[in-house]
Amino acid sequence: MHPIIENPSSSPVTAGVTDEVAERLAAALRCATVSTEDPADTADAEFLRLARHLEAAFPRVHAELTLTTFGHSRLYRWHGTEPGHVSAILLAHQDVVPVDDAQRWTHPPFAGVVDEEFIWGRGAIDDKSRVLAVLEAVEWALGAGIRPRHTVFLAFGHDEEVFGDGGAVRMAEYLRAENVRAELLLDEGGVITDGVADGIDRPVASIMLGEKGYATVRLSVTETGGHSSMPGRQTAVGRLARAVARVQDRPMPLRLTPVIADMLARMRVALPEPHRKLLELTDTRGLATLAAPLVARILAAAPSTEAMVRTTTAPTVIRGGVKANVLPQSAEALVNFRILPGDSVSAVLAHCRKVIRDIGVAIDLVGAASEPSRVTGPGPAYELIAELATDLVPGIVTTTGLVPGATDSRHYDGLAETRCNFAPIVLTAADLARIHGTDERISRLNYARLIEFNRRLIARLAAASAQGEGARR
Ligand SMILES: [Zn+2]
């Protein structure tokens, strides 16, 4: 059966998805594809169940695109009618974070419950809705005879939540070996937030252009130990505590980077008067003006915006000592840094040494670290995404920005002209807290926006001439 499908319009989406479409997502949410740090205990059976579901739910995609797997990661190649060019790499991830408060959920996190308004479950937003929305759109396009002029890749990782070494890293390597250079790389990250930014009464679409880096630094102190009645001048615990306090009290300097200046310039129209005046003094070319440090200081006043203007420092773990009357032989602390473009992992280590000023404190990196991504300028691909978002949800402000966390797209550096981290779903602050939290869910309306966005994007990438190709099949 071939439903009659009209070309996507440019009108806003006002109705949610049907039961049938909602159920396809819900079935994916019922697969508990939880990623774990230890590659030995992956939820293999759950990933295989998800793979079988995708293959059954999207038969055209699986008949007509070329699929290469890397572990449970899935890289689909949709051949363009003009070979040799790549228009887009659409990323999403199939894995989800664990749930440790299942009894607090309204519905069990892996039950995939659909009601009148929402589709509930871990992964409903992050990130299975994006995996399924892309597949819904491609399945639709194949049914409508649409073929892209330039090749499109779909890359669905299986270990994004644990740094992507088994999935995204290998898929990106494969694409590099094929000399792929796409016009657009699209991934998770920014959304349309409503009522989140202070003093802005319009929803803000954050089409983010890059992400911060990541590093965890271990501070450790080793002493001889002994009885606490003769401690000497300081213990390992005291020495470590001083080091942690120094690192926390002296963060890396504030800086207004070009992408954040661009973000603010685009938001200017929606800002209250005093802020607007100030920003008129700092446009993207005016970074060196007197107002730039002032703007950076204003942003630094709240934790959510401070993250935009500096490498953040978060002491997260501290341990040492066993008993009140025994001198500790060792103590250690972990400090997590999110690194602003322009800083680097090695600059973070150098900064720690400089502010701690104590050779008795060992400073080293632990776990995975990543440099801040290259930030691509807002080119034509950005403009296209912004236009599609504005059509879907009229009245929004579209702007750029930086993803404060880490996504799989950092592994794809250099594989595309423009990288955008964005999904056109409208979320409030309370909705944002559900991501990685309790009661994750997506509204039928947001899911409809997401699918329609991908359809329109594909239709635009395909361009008019490809319609003829499809018709000849
Ligand atoms: Zn995610």
From TrEMBL:
GO terms for biological process: proteolysis. Residues 210-360 form the Peptidase M20 dimerisation domain. Keywords: Carboxypeptidase, Hydrolase, Metal-binding, Protease, Zinc. Coiled coil: none annotated. InterPro entries: Bact_exopeptidase_dim_dom (IPR036264), Pept_M20A (IPR047177), Peptidase_M20 (IPR002933), Peptidase_M20_dimer (IPR011650). GO terms for molecular function: carboxypeptidase activity; metal ion binding. Pfam families: M20_dimer (PF07687), Peptidase_M20 (PF01546). It comes from the Bacteria. Belongs to the peptidase M20A family. PANTHER family: N-FATTY-ACYL-AMINO ACID SYNTHASE/HYDROLASE PM20D1 (PTHR45962), N-FATTY-ACYL-AMINO ACID SYNTHASE_HYDROLASE PM20D1 (PTHR45962:SF1). This is Carboxypeptidase PM20D1. It comes from Nocardia neocaledoniensis.
